[in-house]
Amino acid sequence: MAKIGLDNFLYGLLTEAADGTPTYGVAKKPGKAISCNVSISNNSATLYADNVLAESDTSFQSGTVTIGLDEYDVETQATLLGHETDNGVIIRNSNDAAPYVGLGRIVTKMVNGAYKYKVEFLSKVKFSEPSQEDSTKGESVEFGTVEIEGTIASLADGTWSKAQTFDTRTEAVTYLESLFTAPTP
Which of 33, 88, 103, 177 makes the best surface tag, with the fewest CB within 10 Å? Predict the structure, then answer.
């Protein structure tokens, strides 16, 4: 299996009911996908008895996701980071609190010479304010993009991710969109 592409970032605001049932708001596209890095931290514990390993556990603890985008518009920033906007102006306040969101993407793969489309969905992510780095135009043009990092947590039932592979892009997009209330046009 060779990964050969990444596209279709979608996110939606997460609401967890009192019983822990998650629902996601309208699917929104934060920008065109450039990169995605998911790093997972696991619990790790071992128990030795009678001088041998008797029990061990390596379970999900938390994680981080860093997504690279071509554009990071005001509305996306405000939604993902809990900021307000006023006539296209983003207003950042130290008391703002970022909401939890569900975040999905499609990874294009080649398996035995055939294209496959894997939907990767993170159930509960909270993004944090990104650093900003800008530079002047020199002798040649260099494109600058934005990266934003989020913390991955698990839902009340322990679910932190879903993944499914499809034979067609259409099936993958339909499944990804079905995880949210409705896709944006």
Answer: 88
